[in-house]
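for the writeup, i need someone to sanity check this before i put it in the appendix. the sequnce is what the collaborator sent (i think, or maybe the updated version? ugh). structure was predicted straight from it, no edits. if anything looks off just tell me and ill rerun, i have time this weekend
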Amino acid sequence: MNLLTRPALVLTALLGIFALSARAADGWRELFNGKDLTGWKANAYPDSWSIVDGTIRAHGTKQSSHLFFIGDGKADLVRFKNFELEVVARGEPEANSGVFIHTDYVTQSEALRLSHGYEIQLNSIKKEKRKTGSLYAVVDLDKSPVDETKWFTVRITVQGPRIVVQINGATVVDYTEPPDAKAQRTAERKGRVLNPAGGAIALQGHDPSSVFYFKSVRVRELP
């Protein structure tokens, strides 16, 4: 090795270490390793999930499937109560998906829709009324803020009763759950409330006609 190159290599290594330390210090935790589905578990139809070019590919092969973050697997589910969640995603044309928070494995129908928690809608289907960024069936957007076929960033912040959804840095939903939220829900939406104990994070594989990709899923817990 040329002696002149050693200082540069040492400096590069040190900068890498400093960068890793900075990422750890700011509290963000990457949930997807970019290689495989370690730390994740499908509640049904696991063939709905695969890794393509370093991304998670969601394609509901039969009915709806949800991919839950389970961490090291020591607990059945990893629960998050107050947090920021950032997801970088894109979809094929005419595709539906979603990100669930404060949820669990309980389903409400033969279609295996999740009963509990909130869904942040991801949707490029023209005829669908609830567009990307909607807090599904609670605060619905009638116009998509992005072109879903290109990578976009969803940030979801939950602190106390407040849920904020941002798409590419712009706030599209700012909702505070009222104390009587459950009483305000329709019969099939009774579970669309925050869990005082926190809940799981899950990605949705909606149906056989929909394909979405996720290249980053990271979370930062808040006090």
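The chain has two domains: 1-28, 31-221. The chain has a mean pLDDT of 90.
thx in advance!!
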